[in-house]
Amino acid sequence: MRLAVFSDTHGFPDYLIPAVRRVRPDILVHLGDGIRDTAALEREFPELPLHIVSGNCDFASRAPDTDIFFAGAVKVFAAHGHRYGVKSTLDPLLNSAHFAGAQLVLYG
């Protein structure tokens, strides 16, 4: 199972499509701050699952703050991280992921 994980693209999506073509992932993930940039991914790779979470710069976004999904048999907890204070400590993020039963944590 191969994931392509992006974050903080901030309106500069030019490298996304070439990266996905090179990596050939099974799942796409954008961890916030530039989630509008994922529209190009949806158009180019409609067959790939795309998981999106909202970041602190994604104003008026309807995307959730967290997403929990399976990558094969692995339960994944995805977040931008700003709601968990990751600049100071990872404890709240890791605790939330643990209580969700996640085996992998992704944050941007």
UniProtKB/TrEMBL annotation:
SUPFAM superfamilies: Metallo-dependent phosphatases (SSF56300). InterPro entries: Calcineurin-like_PHP_lpxH (IPR024654), Metallo-depent_PP-like (IPR029052). Residues 1-108 form the Calcineurin-like phosphoesterase domain. It comes from the Bacteria. Pfam families: Metallophos_2 (PF12850). Belongs to the metallophosphoesterase superfamily. YfcE family. This is Metallophosphoesterase family protein.
